[in-house]
Amino acid sequence: MISVITGAGSGIGAAAALDLARKGYQLVLVGRDRDRLESTASRVRSATDSDVSVETADFTRFAEVRDLAARLRDNHDHIDVLANNAGVMVPDRRVTADGHELMIQVNHLSPFLLTNILLDRVGRVVTTSSRAAKAGKLEPDDLSRERRRWNGWLQYGDTKQANALMTVGLATRGAKATCFHPGVIKTTFAGGTVFMKLITLPGLHEPVEKAASRLAYLATSEDGERLAGTFFRDNRPDKVPAQMTDPDLAERLWTASAEAVGLDG
User: Fold this and answer.
1) Could you tell me if 60 and 96 are in contact, meaning their C-beta atoms sit under 8 angstroms apart?
2) Can you give the pTM of this predicted structure?
3) Is 25 annotated as catalytic?
4) Is residue 247 a contact partner of residue 168, using CB atoms and an 8 Å limit?
5) 173-206 per-position pLDDT tens digit
6) CATH number of 2-261
7) Which of 25, 156, 189, 231 is catalytic?
8) Domain spans of the chain?
């Protein structure tokens, strides 16, 4: 069994790699920093018999995502689990070389591109979303928030809502796709923001291994197949706003995303 995990150099991705390796998966660890990926791979190899390889790709560049997808297709006829875990939160507005706001590209558009290129070879898709998705006000015709008031956390919520809607779109197309809220976890994610400093005070956060177990649950349990299109929290389907499950909005997002990344819808 093979699992591809993005954002595997540290945090939830690194912990999930060890969890899935202990469950018998061969791993492909994806991230920007090869040294961090090799460190994760070394820890996994020292604790398990899993076969581990690493692939570098910068999700701020679609060309690198396409190259990654091509390498994965060359090396693997089948991928049991694609874990879309890479993500970023920045308070200031930044634009990538591809012309998109940084968070929407890294958190949604690049995973959308990777998933679509690999989809015919993938058994399950598990995407790390967030409860921030519930506050999202996603507008498919303004993914980079160029025509709306800028706020980093509002844009982050939009990108996490995009994760949920992509999951709905994948399920509509027959894919075994789920997404989940990882919990309040103290990692380097958004570490420079006041909000994260407050909610990760002692006693207010969970260990990273807890979030990893939630990813692994959807990668391995019956629910990960039976409840395609579902947003999970604490390994159970969560009650979410209608906007996170709206099939029409999911299709509008799919069309806008395909256009943004240069795919046929």
Assistant:
1) yes
2) 0.92
3) no
4) yes
5) 999 999 999 998 865 555 454 544 444 445 556 8
6) 3.40.50.720
7) 156
8) 2-261
